[in-house]
Write a structure and sequence with these properties.
The protein has helices spanning 3-10, 15-24, 115-122, 142-150, 184-191, 223-230; strands at residues 27-29, 32-33, 48-50, 53-55, 62-67, 96-97, 106-112, 130-136, 164-169, 172-177, 196-204, 207-208, 218-220. It is of the alpha+beta class. The protein folds into 3 domains: 3-55, RNA-binding S4 domain (Structural Genomics Hypothetical 15.5 Kd Protein In mrcA-pckA Intergenic Region, Chain A, Roll), CATH 3.10.290.10; 62-124 and 207-230, Alpha-Beta Plaits; 130-204, Alpha-L RNA-binding motif (Alpha-Beta Plaits), CATH 3.30.70. α1 (3-10) crosses α2 (15-24).
């Protein structure tokens, strides 16, 4: 792999920024300063440092973002703030969100460049469960919970698949669904004559939103979290 390409792939530096680093003598290969971006390196064997800090080759990156309300789930947008704006300094190229959360929805959102994993997590055939904390406009009854658990008509060709409902309070619940229809949770609550006033995704598959990640913060998945996530498939 070319040295300049390697720098771009494993860091947040753009190609032009990589050229500046090389020109300044900030990059070393196996302990020797290198200013030639076209130099062929072995990304799995050679030691590459930038300003004295070693950077290692990594093909796939997996980030967990605690998405805040007020930003859209997209890679870029000319007008709106996107979830990717929170990961501007994150290493890894071609990162994108896995699925989407509405602009006013908070919670767990995965960001990765592993297209195969993303596809599997979103595949309707996999039935990956997603759990949301839902605060409703008004109290809901046991009968309402039963309707959600049996599946409701939200205006599509088919009723929703059976959901799991856990009551938290008179107007709060944890709702687990295995589909990803447009505005599904909001439409499900509307189907029982209620309205969502606050929505937060707290888990996806076997992966839960850690309590120590504040809204707007992100970090890489730990090796154990990645194993847990893949066990969902």
């Amino acid at each position: 792999m070319r040295l300049d390409k390697f720098i771009c792939q494993v860091s947040s530096y753009s190609r032009s920024e990589a050229k500046v680093l090389l020109k300044k003598g900030s990059v070393a290969v196996n302990g020797l300063i290198c200013k030639d971006g076209e130099l062929k390196i072995d990304e799995n064997q050679d030691s590459i440092t930038i300003n004295g800090k070693e950077i290692c080759y990594q093909e796939y990156y997996y980030y967990l973002l605690h998405k805040p309300a007020g930003c859209i789930t997209a890679c870029e947008d000319p007008k709106e703030k996107t979830v990717m704006d929170f990961l501007k300094d994150a290493p890894g190229k071609n990162l994108s969100p896995v699925g989407r959360l509405d602009k006013d929805t908070e919670g767990l959102l995965l960001i990765t460049n592993d297209g195969a994993l993303s596809h599997n997590l979103l595949s309707p055939k996999k039935h990956i469960p997603k759990t949301y904390f839902v605060r409703c406009n008004s109290p809901f009854s046991e009968e309402d919970m039963q309707k959600l658990e049996e599946g409701v008509d939200i205006g599509d060709e088919k009723r929703t698949k059976p959901a799991k409902v856990k009551r938290i309070s008179d107007n709060e619940m944890e709702l687990t669904i295995t589909e990803g229809r447009y505005h599904q949770v909001k439409r499900m609550l509307s189907a029982i004559s209620n309205k969502v006033v606050y929505l937060k995704r707290i888990s996806m598959g076997n992966l839960k939103l850690p309590e120590d990640i504040k809204c707007g913060e992100y970090r890489e998945l730990t090796p154990n979290e990645l194993i847990i996530l893949k066990e969902s498939l």
